[in-house]
Amino acid sequence: MPDDADDAAQVMFAADSASRSLGIELLGAADGRASARMRVTESMVNGHDIAHGGYLFLLADTAFACACNSHGPMTVASGAEISFVAAARLGEDLTAVAEERTSYGRNGIYDVTVYRESAAGRDVVAEFRGRSRTIAREGDTR
């Protein structure tokens, strides 16, 4: 585990072969916030010719994981839900921005907005809420 809490999310993401294999790029993570980007590829499009919701969830979950791990201690999801607002299409670049809303004890709540840029500005594609739990390490009595 790195000494610098801001590096913890970077180290975790570097070992995240699931997210990286999909081309997800971590744009930044610090102080309970993170942003990540992904391009919708042909293998991510479902039978309705739109991005499969599982990939949108994965992008949001990746930003969430980096945000809650930006504090330093190992943190995992204890639950999450997503609302799909608009369809994403082949070739679109999607950005997920995660922000900590509150933390209490070893728990946290984070909101993530997934959007695409358009001529009119940011078009929201999905809204995600994740609940986190810091994991006690060996010898930790918390």
Automatic annotation (TrEMBL):
MF (Gene Ontology): acyl-CoA hydrolase activity
Top-rank taxon, per record: Bacteria
InterPro entries: Acyl-CoA_thioesterase_PaaI, HotDog_dom_sf, PaaD, PAAI_dom, Thioestr_dom
Record-linked CDD domains: PaaI_thioesterase (cd03443)
Keyword Hydrolase attached: yes
UniProt keyword Hydrolase, yes or no: yes
Pfam families in alphabetical order: 4HBT (PF03061)
Stretches assigned to the Thioesterase domain: 50-117
Key words, A-Z: Hydrolase
NCBIfam families: PaaD (TIGR02286), unchar_dom_1 (TIGR00369)
Family: Belongs to the thioesterase PaaI family.
Protein name according to UniProt: Acyl-CoA thioesterase
